[in-house]
Amino acid sequence: METLWSDFLNSQWHDWRGSGRSEDRLELRAWQERFLSDWHLAAPVPMPAEAASAMRHFRERLHLLAVKLADGGGMEDGDWQLLNEHLALDVVSRRLIGRPGAVRLVYVPVTEDWRHVRAEIAASFGETLLGGETGRIRVCDNPDCRWIFYDDTRNRTKKYCDDKMCGNLMKVRRFRARKKAGEERGEES
Ligand SMILES: [Zn+2]
């Protein structure tokens, strides 16, 4: 399942096919437009340099936290502090939207900028914590890929970001390794 926070972390892209290529998509205009539109957020595009450096810094720390939780670690004081730091900087106002039979209370950002986006990312991570299911945070088992995702499958056994891509690739790699090991044994005898 894609969440706002994992989509943000995956802006640091690694070629899952194993070419060793990686790309920081955070500063690509196309990535910024797609990201804001997918999550119904608004902020200046292209991202100003100062915002980009704050976003990268936050991404680095949130990535460490996600990997730690994926490895079975727990939240520590500094981790709560990291999330609260970004939540505290945001100012929202509340608005009631009333329609017959449907009343909603919505939070409207006072400023539409990347600082607000970071608060939304921290809030999204907070929702994962509120769900109490940090054991479902995963790093794709393909070491070349390292895609971060939230495993929402019933039996909690999702190992790859995408079974058709990374899952198949790893299956082929295992098959080749076994075949090679078999051939080597064959040559020796
Ligand atoms: Zn993957």
UniProtKB/TrEMBL annotation:
Source domain of life: Bacteria
InterPro entries to which the protein is assigned, alphabetical: ABATE, ABATE_dom_sf, Znf_CGNR
Organism, scientific name: Paenibacillus rhizolycopersici
Pfam families tied to this protein: ABATE, zf-CGNR
Xref: PANTHER family: BLL6575 PROTEIN (PTHR35525)
Residue span, Zinc finger CGNR domain: 136-179
Stated name of the protein: CGNR zinc finger domain-containing protein
